[in-house]
# Entry
Amino acid sequence: MADETVGIVGAGIVGLAVGREITLRRPGTSVVVFEKEDSIGAHQTGHNSGVVHAGIYYAPGSLKARLCTRGRSMLREYCVERGLPYEECGKLVVAVTPGELPRLERLASLAEVNGVPGLRRLVASGITDVEPHALGLAALHSPRTAITDFVRIAEEFGRDIVSAGGEILLGRGVTAVHRERRGGLRVVAGGHAESVSRLVVCAGLHADRVGRLVSDTAEPRIVPFRGEYMRVRASKAGLVRGMIYPVPDPRYPFLGVHFTRRVGGGLEVGPNAVPAMAREGYQRWRVDPRELLRIASWPGSGRLVARHWRTGLREMRGSLSVRAYLRDARRYVPDIGPADVVRAGAGVRAQALDRDGTLVDDFRVHRLGGVTVVRNAPSPAATSSMAIAEHIVTAMGRGD
# Structure
């Protein structure tokens, strides 16, 4: 429909990709983005590892599998077109114990179904051909896994929106959404009110809170997990050429501590996954009592702790001790030890948790009338951002 206004809540990479897609596919539609921070990509977009995933891990037919494959291709083309950084440095997923070999084989089968380009199975001797300082019994090599700068991409999406006549309103946190009698919605943000025809909520860490403003369901609830990184000192940064990952535990949506190169240079280890004590708990000791009460009161939280408390304690021990943090990482690259790293930044993952204690793995999008709410969009959401936008805007075209 022409001459309508679509509001977007959140100026992360997914929200901006949606706004850009609307300007391309719905001529005459105005876009207005509401962002509570004073910059683009201030949260998950600006605190991730910069990895462009190739689609190895995801259940065939899931939204993650479909949209990661499509999104990686779209993102690569966009970066080439705009001169944005995109380096296919490749990734090894390494099994270091006999017990991990069946899981590695299952992972290879998933990757093949998902059409991961160029995937190879490697025996131990083949690992050192790719990563001379890595150890393992077997590995999968994904040569097309890449690294990029997602904040720069998000900023470019923002420029596309503005060039098409849209607005990005920074410092405008959404506090209320009202349905108007004659249709449409009234969005209250930063003390101002804007009328929009439709609304797309891409609020990340605040997805459940903003979802409730538009009468979305209470489930799933966002539980924040902090992911901490270590930076490898320059003297050892050359020991890893691309990326080295563990074989993930299928019980968790986290990939485990790994080695990742950055497009700006350097090598990082991480992230881990520890419960954050605040919704934006980037600092280890930041505590928000109201947030802790909110998490504790959610039935899924107790069930999650009962199932996975041992893993949680191990992750917390690694958070407090560099030596413990590197214990698992050194199974893959033993020449990088505690003296070779310094603490770097941290991100907070907006992890959705169902009432039954299940950590939501797949992307989850709710639609209610003229409102779309992205309720779970963790990794590989940045990789998939353009495909997620395409998926959402296509559904809008069907009239929701």
In short: The CA atoms of residues 24 and 164 lie 9 Å apart.
